[in-house]
From TrEMBL, chain A:
<dbReference type="InterPro" id="IPR000195">
    <property type="entry name" value="Rab-GAP-TBC_dom"/>
</dbReference>
<dbReference type="InterPro" id="IPR035969">
    <property type="entry name" value="Rab-GAP_TBC_sf"/>
</dbReference>
<dbReference type="GO" id="GO:0005789">
    <property type="term" value="C:endoplasmic reticulum membrane"/>
</dbReference>
<protein>
    <submittedName>
        <fullName>GTPase-activating protein</fullName>
    </submittedName>
</protein>
<feature type="domain" description="Rab-GAP TBC">
    <location>
        <begin position="68"/>
        <end position="271"/>
    </location>
</feature>
<dbReference type="Pfam" id="PF00566">
    <property type="entry name" value="RabGAP-TBC"/>
</dbReference>
<dbReference type="GO" id="GO:0005096">
    <property type="term" value="F:GTPase activator activity"/>
</dbReference>
<dbReference type="GO" id="GO:0006888">
    <property type="term" value="P:endoplasmic reticulum to Golgi vesicle-mediated transport"/>
</dbReference>
<dbReference type="InterPro" id="IPR045913">
    <property type="entry name" value="TBC20/Gyp8-like"/>
</dbReference>
UniProtKB/TrEMBL annotation, chain B:
<keyword id="KW-0342">GTP-binding</keyword>
<keyword id="KW-0636">Prenylation</keyword>
<dbReference type="InterPro" id="IPR027417">
    <property type="entry name" value="P-loop_NTPase"/>
</dbReference>
<comment type="similarity">
    <text>Belongs to the small GTPase superfamily. Rab family.</text>
</comment>
<dbReference type="GO" id="GO:0032889">
    <property type="term" value="P:regulation of vacuole fusion, non-autophagic"/>
</dbReference>
<keyword id="KW-0547">Nucleotide-binding</keyword>
<protein>
    <submittedName>
        <fullName>Rab family GTPase</fullName>
    </submittedName>
</protein>
<dbReference type="InterPro" id="IPR001806">
    <property type="entry name" value="Small_GTPase"/>
</dbReference>
<keyword id="KW-0449">Lipoprotein</keyword>
Length: 469, 208
């Protein structure tokens, strides 16, 4: 199809599919194209990539400027990418109606969600969808625990999937089909990306955020020294990272291409939970002058360094988000662009991080930046369990007990984590005996023989977990 | 480092999720109420200049913490150096009232306060604007609890309608200031002792 602007859809596809090209670089487009035109053209290419099931291209598009452009394309793209990321099969038998132990907390947090949505019908519709999505997930995985902030993350998915593309508004009635797609995406996203946060202890997310000071040190050793970031846990980042920034930025319901949606695009298309950590480090670096200024001004106003750094970083960051001035929006766009062009983790830094990140963490398995699920790389789950336990026992021995009253109960957590992982793999593997879903068949990278050979591995692993529990 | 803050009163708000900690903080600091407050993750803080008994001016630093139990281990990082701890329950939620004692105990275990028996706590029963039919914690039960916790002050508040919020925070500021001064005096005593020892040594060395 030739566009009226003189560049055909397939020409664009060829340009964007060029793997040597910086994915954030749309400079091959004639310079007189404004942002709006670029987005329109990009939409056509995204639609084509979806139609042709060109997943590599789709990911390249999602992590370039403007992400997936609008929520109509976004819901289709997220659905495609997530379903290729982790293969899960659901059957009606899995429906569990036993309430999860965290449902009261879920109710409480859902009740105070979407307060910014003025239309009461729309607000209630979103709340209902949010609650159902969260409750359905936790009833299916009762060993996982809900955390405050999980509802913020799922709110973003709910807004994206509840959009009625024809009216460009929130649907007042979500079809059963749409709801199913939403639940599946929530499930895959939670298992592949948020698993560490859904554990019984905060040790796992704290390990994850501990990568941030390393990233800052790498880029700006002076700032790192000044704030003495090696002397404290980076608790200032916990709300942003646990919620992938959705606690601080509300998902827009007007159909606008807000920053928060583009952040999620980037996380999904990089297949990496390192991405929010890199983004966080980059925003701190972009705000370093303001942080330095506030730090100096407040040095005598706080009881200790933990309070001071937490307060200063949080205050400056929140100002940059809440400030409606165009410069603030521009700042976030610049930082997002910077992250898009370099989200990779330096191998030396990754090596350092691997010293304290649990082997079973999404950062080292399902959301490590590698596009395919571990089931495809033949990684031995059994080996993973044994190694994980040994590693954590060593860590437990090294760490002085009860530093801050924290319970280093890794053993149980590893088992829970692996049980969930193994169960999801087993579900997928067992389904080999039945029919495969059409979209699974379509994934070009899927190696059916390897999946079949993993059946015995997974069942052995499950036995191992059950016996050692 | 706890000696470096001058005229800064650190106040920490604890209590179960949804009892109104964030609302109370915003009502006091900004005199605003909104139904839109989101769940607190980790810890947030606000500051307000306070004038105590028309005599002393100080800056109150109010630290709002997450109520969900699983965040408790993270919240303790901010207990250090607190001058007053505010314990909040919801008058329409029995469980939140029953948990008050464990919030206090948890605070004392982790805050490392110099004199736990005299450390100031203030108890707030929030949401008194609710219908009487919904109230499940009696004022008498609250007063008995406050007495059992060492005769700590108790206030019945509504962040929504601003009832008693200012009065409660006046008391919080007063208690925090008192605690802050006690700590400063103790620090000064220690400091003077150290100097005295040094002087004594010097005297001894001269006589040698």
């Amino acid at each position: 199809m030739a566009s009226i602007l003189g560049l055909g859809e397939s020409d664009l596809t060829t340009q964007l599919a060029d793997t040597n090209r910086d994915t954030n670089d749309l400079s091959f487009l004639p310079s007189f194209y404004n942002d709006k035109t670029q987005c329109e053209l990009k939409s056509q290419v995204i639609s084509r990539a979806l139609r042709k099931k060109e997943n590599t291209l789709l990911c390249a598009l999602g992590k370039s400027k403007c992400g997936f452009v609008n929520n109509d394309l976004r819901q289709k793209s997220w659905n495609t990418i997530l379903n290729n990321q982790l293969i899960l099969y659901s059957s009606p038998k899995e429906v569990n109606n036993t309430p999860h132990c965290d449902e009261k907390q879920i109710e409480l947090d859902v009740r105070r969600s979407f307060g910014y949505v003025k239309d009461e019908v729309e607000r209630n519709c979103l709340k209902k969808a949010l609650k159902q999505a969260i409750v359905t997930f936790f009833r299916k995985y009762p060993t996982l625990r809900y955390y405050q902030g999980y509802h913020d993350v799922i709110s973003v998915l709910v807004v994206v999937f509840c959009l009625d593309p024809k009216r460009n508004k929130i649907s007042r009635n979500i079809s059963g089909q749409r709801r199913k797609i939403l639940y599946k995406c929530v499930e895959i996203f939670s298992l592949a990306y948020l698993r560490d946060f859904l554990m019984d202890s905060l040790d796992f997310p704290i390990d994850q955020i501990s990568v941030i000071p390393l990233l800052i040190q790498d880029k700006d050793p002076q700032l790192f020294q000044r704030l003495q970031l090696d002397k404290q846990k980076p608790l200032y980042a916990i709300a942003s990272v646990l919620t992938i920034f959705s606690h601080d930025m509300r998902p827009d319901i007007t159909g606008a291409n807000s920053i928060i949606f583009q952040i999620f695009d980037l996380v999904l298309c990089t297949h990496s939970m390192y991405t929010p950590l890199v983004l966080y480090a980059n925003i701190v670096l972009a705000l370093r002058d303001r942080i330095n200024k506030e730090y100096t001004a407040n040095i005598g106003n706080f009881d200790n360094d933990v309070d001071l750094v937490h307060a200063v970083v949080q205050k400056v960051l929140m100002q940059s988000i809440n400030d409606e001035a165009p410069q603030s929006r521009q700042l976030w766009e610049t930082v997002l662009d910077r992250t898009r062009s370099d989200y990779s983790i330096d191998p030396k830094l990754e090596k350092k991080a691997c010293k304290f990140i649990n082997k079973t963490s999404p950062l080292r398995t399902t959301a490590s930046g590698r596009p395919q699920l571990e089931i495809n790389d033949g990684y031995s789950l059994d080996k993973l369990i044994k190694k994980g336990i040994v590693l954590n026992n060593k860590k437990k021995d090294k760490v002085p007990k009860d530093t801050d009253g924290q319970d280093w109960n890794y053993d149980r957590l590893i088992k829970t984590s692996l049980l969930v992982g193994a169960a999801s793999l087993a579900l997928g593997a067992c389904h080999q005996h039945g029919s495969l879903l059409p979209d699974t068949m379509a994934t070009s990278h899927l190696d059916l023989n390897r999946i079949a050979s993993s059946v015995s591995l997974v069942s052995d692993s499950l036995k191992h977990i059950i016996n050692s529990s | 480092m706890s000696s470096r803050k001058k005229n800064i009163l650190k106040v920490i708000i604890l209590g179960d999720s949804g009892v109104g900690k964030t609302s109370l903080m915003h009502r006091y600091v900004n005199d605003k109420y909104s139904q839109q407050y989101k769940a607190t993750i980790g810890a947030d803080f606000l500051t307000k200049e306070v004038n105590i008994d028309n005599d002393k001016v100080a800056t109150m630093q109010v630290w709002d913490t997450a109520g969900q139990e699983r965040f408790q281990s993270l919240g303790v990082a901010f207990y250090r150096g607190a001058d007053c701890c505010v314990l909040v329950y919801d008058v329409t939620n029995t469980k939140s009232f029953q948990n008050i004692k464990s919030w206090r105990d948890e605070f004392l275990v982790h805050a490392n306060v110099s004199t736990p028996e005299t450390f100031p706590f203030v108890l707030l029963g929030n949401k008194i604007d609710a219908d009487d039919s919904k109230k499940v914690v009696s004022n008498k039960a609250a007063q008995e609890l406050a007495a059992s916790l060492g005769n700590i002050p108790v206030f019945f508040t509504s962040a929504k309608t601003a009832i008693n919020v200012d009065t409660a925070f006046q008391e919080i500021a007063r208690s925090a200031l008192q605690q802050n001064q006690n700590d400063a005096d103790a620090f000064e005593d220690d400091f003077n002792d150290a100097i005295n020892i040094q002087l004594d040594n010097d005297t001894n060395s001269c006589s040698c």
